[in-house]
């Protein structure tokens, strides 16, 4: 029941001919042409995407260094500003404690920095002497007064500033001139 090789070859040719007759050769050519067109478009798209990825990687490398530098700068500026506001709050509270009648009632609460504390766990309302600048601790309240008026270079200026502050307070109170 084995077929001879010429009979097998003839049977294979007959099966192949029948399969070829099932599908039109024009349709097969159109399918192959469409597949080549799609393949070309996919290769073009792949080349464009590869080029875009390389360009994006290059741009990211350039921008990431700038971005990291700007981030460090902003963090440093925030730390500096937090330190400055901490010192200012301490100076304001010391001035208010030393000269309570220099500030109208409730004005100190309005002038204190009321920003929300977003990151720090420090208590910004109280300030220790160790956190003050050395010239503030050495000079005492007279120097704080002078610092509030912007003159901290020598003692005579601080004395003049204190007396100017007293005169201004006396004039506000409508009182007599003289030392307090």
From TrEMBL:
Write down any Gene Ontology CC term.
BORC complex
What's the protein here called? KxDL domain-containing protein
Pfam name, any one:
KxDL
Basic residues composition-biased segments: 157-167
Location of the region described as Disordered in the Swiss-Prot/TrEMBL record: 151-180
KxDL domain residues: 18-103
UniProt GO BP: lysosome localization
What protein family does this chain belong to? Belongs to the KXD1 family.
Q: Which domain of life is it from?
A: Eukaryota
To which species is this protein native? Oryza nivara (Indian wild rice)
């Amino acid at each position: 029941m084995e077929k001879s090789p010429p009979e097998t070859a003839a049977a294979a040719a007959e099966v192949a001919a029948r399969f070829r007759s099932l599908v039109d050769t024009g349709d097969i050519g159109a399918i192959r042409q469409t597949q080549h067109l799609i393949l070309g478009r996919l290769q073009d798209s792949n080349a464009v995407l590869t080029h875009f990825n390389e360009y994006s990687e290059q741009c990211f490398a350039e921008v990431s260094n700038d971005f990291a530098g700007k981030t460090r700068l902003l963090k440093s500026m925030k730390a500096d500003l937090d330190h400055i506001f901490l010192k200012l709050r301490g100076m304001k509270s010391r001035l208010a404690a030393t000269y309570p009648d220099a500030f109208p009632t409730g004005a100190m609460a309005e002038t204190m920095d009321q920003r929300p504390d977003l990151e720090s766990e420090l208590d910004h309302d109280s300030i220790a002497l160790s956190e003050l600048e050395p010239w503030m601790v050495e000079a005492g309240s007279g120097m704080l007064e002078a610092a509030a008026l912007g003159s901290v270079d020598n003692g005579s200026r601080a004395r003049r500033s204190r007396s100017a502050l007293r005169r201004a307070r006396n004039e506000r109170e409508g009182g007599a001139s003289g030392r307090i």
